[in-house]
Design brief:
Largest sheet: 3 strands, mixed
Mean pLDDT: 79
Number of strands: 5
Shape: elongated
Helix content: 40-55%
Radius of gyration: 22 Å
Strand content: 15-25%
Structural class: alpha+beta
Distance between the termini: 40 Å
Length: 137
């Protein structure tokens, strides 16, 4: 929120959702999109705050452009009112989705590791290694 205020966005024009960027429908995003009109500029801090799906970002970008609304991504220096900004928007949309998929993959790997463990068993002078894997699915 501080970055938006520093970028000149009035506090009453800041819409804040407390939901994952992975969800396409969020109440405040929906309210913001309804409020935007021709000549407006949507400012966001990072592209992954808007969405983590390439398809959703492309749809949002097309909708904004059709309605005459610009998009300025502060931290990534994207301004869709320029040819270069539109190109960067497309490239970073792909990277945002990749990042989201990596997070999901790493979370699943962590959960799988949590449900598997190893045990060392010592009996006298003998050492036995026992690996136990508990299937979660």
């Amino acid at each position: 929120m501080d970055a938006l205020l520093r970028a000149g966005v009035a506090r009453e024009n800041i819409f804040l959702d407390r939901a994952s960027g992975a969800r396409a429908s969020r109440p405040e995003l929906d309210r913001l999109m309804a409020a935007l009109g021709d000549g407006d500029m949507l400012k966001i801090t990072r592209l992954d705050r808007l969405s983590r799906s390439v398809q959703h970002l492309i749809n949002l970008g097309a909708d904004l452009r059709t309605r005459g609304v610009g998009l300025h991504v502060i931290e990534q220096g994207i301004d869709t009112e320029t040819m270069e900004g539109r190109a960067m928007f497309g490239m970073l949309a792909v990277l945002a989705e990749l990042q989201r998929e990596l997070i999901v993959s790493n979370t699943n790997d962590g959960l799988a590791a949590h449900f598997s463990y190893s045990v060392l068993l010592y009996t006298g002078s003998q050492c036995y290694f026992i690996a136990v894997v508990i299937k979660t699915r």
